[in-house]
Amino acid sequence: MRVAVLGTGIAGRTLAGRLAELDHDVSVGTRDVESTMASSQPGRFGSPPFAVWAGQHPQVSVATFADAARQADLVINATDGSVSLKALQDAGAENLNGKPIVDIANHLDYSGFPPRLIVRDDDSLAEQIQRTFPESKVVKALNTMNAAVMANPKQLAGGDHTVFVCGNDAPAKTVATDLLRGFGWTDIVDLGDISAARGAEMIMPLWIQLMQSLGTAAFNFKIVR
Ligand SMILES: NC(=O)c1ccc[n+]([C@@H]2O[C@H](COP(=O)([O-])OP(=O)(O)OC[C@H]3O[C@@H](n4cnc5c(N)ncnc54)[C@H](OP(=O)(O)O)[C@@H]3O)[C@@H](O)[C@H]2O)c1
Q: Which regions of 47-184 does DSSP assign to beta strands (E)?
């Protein structure tokens, strides 16, 4: 499948690398290809400059948000949640219409610790994206764990822990679910329509607290029936 991963941070890189490993045709989207490739700045969490990662992944192409989305069958939103709507606007509604957008973003305010959720209770980032791009098919998924676990759930012992999906369009959810199965996910819980993203996004404060308590980001939630 042709997948556009919008986002050059650790989540975008990790998903893009894994998708390429699984033989998908992957393009990473960024605001400005030239400046992203020229930047020697480390990423937010001390990751190497993007160009270093790109050099190690020659099978992944790098394009503007719009060019990446235009060529894709499925788009992953892995941009900073505070600017996701802008990034998707840069990608262009015409390049998103009719396509699944797998939204993995969290809209957090990092000005203090722990970070605070900006959208909550009676709305969610995923719903905002769906409202802004009504012709696209937003599926919320993968925002409830760290990037390495998202892309390769089997790295955690047992491997049968849980990922949530929700969205209004059943075929788009099927496409997203197939992608998740490809990563190795087996316990995929469909929470319902896109309004269920409120709950999925509001898990973040608990996740952050757990990371503090456990001293690692290598963990996940498991729903036991
Ligand atoms: N990191 C994780 O383990 C993890 C886990 C769960 C969910 N998430 C979510 O995944 C998303 C990505 O996280 P991340 O840590 O990989 O990266 P990030 O630093 O949150 O986001 C990086 C991306 O945001 C884009 N961006 C920044 N400012 C922008 C602006 N003004 N307009 C348009 N785009 C802009 C950047 O564009 P350029 O490429 O042009 O710089 C870059 O592609 C976040 O929403 C995060 O909450 C991350």
A: 61-64, 74-77, 100-103, 108-109, 116-117, 137-141, 162-167
